[in-house]
Amino acid sequence: MKVTQRLFVLVLVGVSVIIPHVRADERRAPKPEVDPATLKGIFFSDINDAFRGEKPTIASVRATAPPVAPPSAGATTSETAATGNELWSGLISPQSLEDEVKRVKLEFDGVVTTPGAFNSGGYLDARLHLTVLASLFAVINQHPAEVRWKDQAAAARDLISRTAFNCKAGSTQVYNEAKLRKGDLQDLVAGSGLASKDAEEETDWTMIADRSPLMEYAETLIDALEDGARDEGTIKKETDLVKRNSELLAVLGEILAQEGMDDADDEDYAKLSRDMTENGKGVTAALSRGDFDAVRVGVSKIRQKCDACHEQYR
User: Fold this and answer.
1) Facing residues of 43 across strands?
2) Separation between Cα atoms, residue 224 and residue 205, nearest integer Å
3) HSE-CB for 151 with a 13 A CA cutoff
4) Fewer C-beta within 10 Å: the chain N or C terminus?
């Protein structure tokens, strides 16, 4: 038998195996019979009758369709809307945010020890640290990158900002509330998470970022930045610290100029805030390219802008 004949036989055998046998006496439903008159007026007899004027083409449909930005892979519409504000990714890295939350959390732990110490002035330090933490969690919530605690950042933001507001005065009740926040922060940092995840959908900076404690915080950042940028050797040794503080100052400048914040509608004040942001970015950029002279110049500019702001606003 020739090769082609053998192949033909094999194909026939394969088909006979794959296709089930149909019995001759198998009963099947008869083909339906429909009177064309009953369909008149329901379906077009010719597809061309369905169009008025020139029949559309694929190209013409694509040309008139509005552009739609596709969501990121695997993201739903709501997830895409909540990916965050691209502004923050240009100002601060996830690592700097995470490190600063841990650092400020330890500072806060140190002022919530006993009711006596808290009521004697510790509540002011607690207000400062909690305001900073609430602001950091607000940025984490809006940051487009994957930052630790992001899934609970909004809840932490709202919970902590409420206690920060109450820390304008010292009392046993406020101390007990601050002690609860101390436990919440410990759970969050340790990885067990917050007991409550309730949060407002929108970030209201006027309810989160109180200007007075944030300006005090800016002073401590500038002091640390100046210490870390004294000379080339110190900058090389304290690179991570200089980077984090310059990024944090850039973020602060942006927060203080947010809509609704005190004097944010004052052009001079807004410019001073934006200048601090730009100078902070400048220090970070100079540091990344190893231009240590530019780092020191940038730190000096930040100090000048901060002093100029304090002369007019507080």
Assistant:
1) 40
2) 26
3) 6
4) N
Q: Whats the size of the chain, residue-wise?
A: 314
Angle (CA) 288 293 299, round 5°: 80
**Looking at this protein, which amino acid is placed at residue 235?**
I
Residue type, 258: Q
Which residues make Cβ contacts (< 8 Å) with residue 118, sequence separation at least 6? 111, 112, 126, 170, 174, 175, 178
Asked if residue 98 lies in contact with residue 148, where contact means CB atoms within 8 angstroms, the answer is yes
Residue that is written with structure tokens 């330090």 in the block = 125
Q: What backbone torsions phi and psi does residue 40 show, to the nearest 5 degrees? A: -65, 130
Amino acid identity, residue 224?
A: A
What does each of the 314 residues of the chain score in pLDDT, given as a tens digit?
444 444 343 434 444 444 444 444 445 566 667 666 666 666 556 666 655 555 555 444 444 444 434 334 333 333 333 345 788 999 999 999 999 999 999 999 999 999 999 999 999 999 999 999 999 999 999 999 999 999 999 999 999 999 999 999 999 999 999 999 999 999 999 999 998 888 998 899 999 999 999 999 999 999 999 999 999 999 999 999 999 999 999 999 999 999 889 888 888 888 988 999 999 999 999 999 999 999 999 999 888 877 777 666 65
Residue the block writes with tokens 């809509």: 259
